[in-house]
Fold this protein.
Amino acid sequence: ETGVTQTPRHLVMGMTNKKSLKCEQHLGHNAMYWYKQSAKKPLELMFVYSLEERVENNSVPSRFSPECPNSSHLFLHLHTLQPEDSALYLCASSPQHRENPYGYTFGSGTRLTVV
Amino acid sequence: GEDVEQSLFLSVREGDSSVINCTYTDSSSTYLYWYKQEPGAGLQLLTYIFSNMDMKQDQRLTVLLNKKDKHLSLRIADTQTGDSAIYFCAENPGGSYIPTFGRGTSLIVHP
């Protein structure tokens, strides 16, 4: 248990569905992140939140919508996804976004399959 | 080319030492990291090294940094089957707060 919990662990959804991924951290960290991990590709940073404010949005399609209601919770709302969006979605947190030498703490990820 | 490069696979015999190599491009990187990802799990931070250090040792792990060649390595002594995983190198490029990850090296440990 890393202190970063992601639910669900697995999700299968149709292209017309709406679903949400949830991430919760119990580490007292102030920054949270969404990453996409696809086979044969480097980790792709999607969104960065620092003190509940979005500070990075890496050209992610609007069918992915993040939400950070407080510093402990992060959501990724999904709608009208495409099969190429199938991947492992990883949430991470860090004590702070800027001047952070200590790296990230990752959750176990949500394995998403779009059919 | 990619900012952080790693070979994709490494196969070692149980009990031997493993050396996983990484090259990066930003000479102003301040922190460099090694993460481990086991099947079905997220990335776990193994160790990190500041750019003003040449070496860091932590039990079976030794990190070597050659700033001149922008080369980082992770040595695992007495490799065990439980060390089988994907190992990611990452750098914090100067002027950026976002780490750049390599594609990962799959370490396969066989008896």
The longest strand of chain B covers residues 43-50.
